[in-house]
Automatic annotation (TrEMBL):
Residues 82-150 form the Transcription elongation factor GreA/GreB C-terminal domain. GO terms for biological process: DNA-templated transcription elongation; regulation of DNA-templated transcription elongation. PANTHER family: TRANSCRIPTION ELONGATION FACTOR GREA, TRANSCRIPTION ELONGATION FACTOR GREB. This is GreA/GreB family elongation factor. It comes from the Bacteria. The keyword Protein biosynthesis applies. One of its GO terms (molecular function) is RNA polymerase binding. Keywords: Elongation factor, Protein biosynthesis. InterPro entries: GreA/GreB_C_sf, Tscrpt_elong_fac_GreA/B_C, Tscrpt_elong_fac_GreA/B_fam.
Length: 158
């Protein structure tokens, strides 16, 4: 019989399990972000200890490897003290006649619904280094964003 028609097991036809992708570049985090990484590692370790199903354990262990890597490579950043925008800054700005406020955080702690955006996001990159009263370029429009206020976000320091 031809090898093409032989099937030894279902396992040989499964998609391979790859590690969770890690973002390229530095792993900049706020103090809060480092704490959240540690909490997730502890939660996953506890869940693995309680899980009997081997497939479920493998998936949890995969996530645990990701968070261990993120925790060990974390570079904690304090918000700038000179009034400029950086990681851990709460920025109030005007874009398209609408006033908004965001906090710039590390990639793993980003939550756009809560107003926390990653430092690597295009909006955050446009704001980084600017100060209150400045206008910055965004999406090929000069003076697209007016920065109204910049302050350290106390929530990111906890």
């Amino acid at each position: 019989m031809s090898v093409a028609f032989r099937r030894e097991s279902d396992d040989e036809h499964k998609e391979p399990e790859y590690e969770l992708p890690i973002a390229v570049g530095p792993n900049l985090v706020t103090p809060r972000g480092l704490r959240l990484l540690g909490e997730e590692v502890a939660r996953l370790e506890g869940e693995i200890a309680e899980t009997a199903d081997e497939e479920a354990r493998k998936k949890l262990q995969r996530r645990l490897r990701y968070f261990h890597t993120r925790q060990s490579t974390a570079d904690v950043q304090a918000p700038p003290t000179d009034g400029s925008v950086g990681i851990g800054s709460r920025v109030t700005y005007r874009l398209n006649k609408a006033e908004k406020a965001i906090t710039i955080v590390g990639g793993d702690e980003a939550d756009p619904a809560r107003g926390h955006i990653a430092f690597s996001a295009p909006l955050a990159r446009a704001l980084m280094g600017a100060e209150a009263g400045e206008n910055v370029e965004y999406q090929d429009r000069e003076d697209a964003i007016a920065i109204l206020a910049v302050e350290p976000d106390p929530e990111t320091q906890a």
